[in-house]
Amino acid sequence: MNGETIEAYLLSLYPEQKDLLKEMEMTARQENVPIIDTISLEAVLQILRVHNASKVLEIGTAIGYSALRMAKGVKGLTVTTIERDEKRYNQAVEFIARSGAEDRITLVYGDALEERKKLEEMAPYDVLFIDAAKGQYKNFFTMYTPLLNNHGIIITDNVLFKGYVTDPEQSPKRMKTMVRKVKEYNEWLLNHPEYTTAILPVGDGIAVTTRKESW
Questions:
Q1: Class of domain 3-211
Q2: Does the annotation list 214 as a binding residue?
Q3: Is 36 annotated as a binding residue?
């Protein structure tokens, strides 16, 4: 059984989204906006539930799809999310306003590499979810892990980058630099002296990272 068959099977098990969420998925497809895939998202939601997370910091809002799914899919969860693209930020504002979840989602406009102080005001967080510019993953990790509580976890999406990380030289020319950076990030994570990481081969790859315990 190949990967595509397994993916199709898993997708058949999850109910199709309706109304606003379905509209958001259609908008993402039509406007080529990258949003988290269904299988990865369901894994993330379950990780949040198991972790009993109540506060998530998301780097990379896009149109607000994952923030809304997290807020609605995990009881008692609040999400602070930041987006630097003005058009996408405004779309997220509109979608979240229509969702009825405004009290659980705080939208911040700006570049995460420049707006740490705004996000620091709402710390500490239980979870850091990194799903923005792949070439900046290491910088996002380094900058925002100090805002987590002692048992916080870090979830990074797209760490397998369509499988290209296995051989960056086989990736399209326009993606080579980015693929190399993601590959370097994965290797850096797995060898980090203060953190332990598991990479889950679901969707486009999810890295789940926790601080190492002192024994």
A1: alpha beta
A2: no
A3: yes
Q: Which of 124, 143, 35 has its CA nearest to residue 80?
A: 124
Which one, of 79, 194, 64, lies nearest residue 127 by Cα? 79
Q: Any binding-site annotation on 19?
A: no
Q: Which of 213, 203, 106, 118 is nearest to 155 (CA)?
A: 203
* pLDDT on residue 215: 46
CB atoms within 10 A of CB 182: 24
Low-confidence ranges of the chain (pLDDT < 50): 215
The pair of structure tokens assigned to 215 is: 């024994």
Strand order in the sheet with 105-109: 105-109, 78-83, 55-59, 125-130, 148-157, 206-211, 195-200
| Per-residue pLDDT at 173 | 85
Q: How far apart are CA 71 and CA 160, in angstroms?
A: 26
Other C-beta atoms within 10 Å of 201: how many?
A: 11
Report the amino acid identity of residue 8: A
- 3-state SS, residue 84: coil
Domain edges within the chain: 3-211
121 is in an annotated binding site: no
Task: Please tell me what DSSP assigns to residue 16.
Answer: P
Q: Are the CB atoms for 183 and 166 separated by under 8 Å?
A: no
d(CA 28, CA 56): 22
The structure tokens listed for 189 are 């994570």
133: annotated binding-site residue? Answer: no
Residue 83 is assigned to a ligand binding site: yes
In angstroms, how far is CA 157 from the centroid of its own chain?
5
